[in-house]
Amino acid sequence: METVSEALEELLVAAQRQNCLTVGVYESAQLMNVDPDSVVLCVLATDEEDENDVALQIHFTLIQAFCCDIDINIVRVSGMRRLAQVLGEPLSTDSNANEPRDLHCILVTNPQAEHLKLNEVGSYCKESHCRNQWVPSIALQER
């Protein structure tokens, strides 16, 4: 049986192929301000070293409140290294001095697009709400 983390990985890859991902805290906040109805899932990603980043945690709190207020499914993800691998992102600045994108907040958009595994991840979020866990967590495992 497939795990929720594998379903999330497949969803992110499919959404990226369909150009239905918004990556970055600032970019995500901007999109949710302009077109919140297009957002179907919000992924907030951190690792242990990010837990003490007060500015990031404030951004997360505001994004979570907004998503809960307008009924956008939201998950917290640990495993930034795996997330970067899934999305084909470099982990650090490459030889051309290109900075890696901010993967701390990722939005899956465009509900009209056929997103593989969206229902599976959405069901996990709804089941978590029934257990009073409003922002469920998923750990992405290195492979």
TrEMBL record:
SUPFAM superfamilies per UniProt: L30e-like
One of the record's GO cellular component terms: cytoplasm
PANTHER family noted in UniProt: GROWTH ARREST AND DNA DAMAGE-INDUCIBLE PROTEIN GADD45, GROWTH ARREST AND DNA DAMAGE-INDUCIBLE PROTEIN GADD45 BETA
Domain named Ribosomal protein eL8/eL30/eS12/Gadd45: residues: 7-100
Organism lineage string: Eukaryota, Metazoa, Chordata, Craniata, Vertebrata
GO process terms (BP): regulation of cell cycle
One Pfam match: Ribosomal_L7Ae
Family that this chain belongs to: Belongs to the GADD45 family.
Protein name per its UniProtKB record: Growth arrest and DNA damage-inducible protein GADD45 beta-like
